[in-house]
Amino acid sequence: MRLKDEFITQDLGDEQVMVAEGGDAFNGIVRSNETAAFIVDMLSEDVSEKDIVDAMCAKYDAPRSMIEEDVRSILDILRSINALEE
Predict the structure, then answer these.
(1) How many whole angstroms from its chain centre is CA 35?
(2) Domain boundaries, position 21
(3) Could you read off the pLDDT of 55-79 as tens digits, one per residue?
(4) Reported pTM
(5) Phi and psi for 58 in degrees, rounded to 5?
(6) DSSP 8-state assignment for residue 86
(7) Which residues lie below 8 Å from residue 70, measured CB to CB, with a gap of 6+?
(8) pLDDT for residue 37
(9) I need a labelling partner for 13 at 20 to 30 A (CA). Which of 32, 35, 36, 61 fits?
(10) DSSP state of 33
(11) CATH label of the domain that carries residue 50
(12) Structural domains in the chain (count)
């Protein structure tokens, strides 16, 4: 899976914002904290959910089960706004 090309991200200090350029599936701004931004950045290339979880486990000191829940939650939000190519 990967982030659709029409979704543009920009880092603003300690937060990341994402907007859809064109298209009519989503009209708004998504603000991401550091963890969500890490996931969104990984989605700039074709990546699996497991790849994201593995990378986050290497970066963050948290139980794998908690990271899996967080990744699943962020991916569900991105799916809800039709931001992912799967």
Answers:
(1) 9
(2) 2-85
(3) 999 999 999 999 999 999 999 999 9
(4) 0.90
(5) -70, -30
(6) -
(7) 35, 56
(8) 94
(9) 61
(10) -
(11) 1.10.10
(12) 1
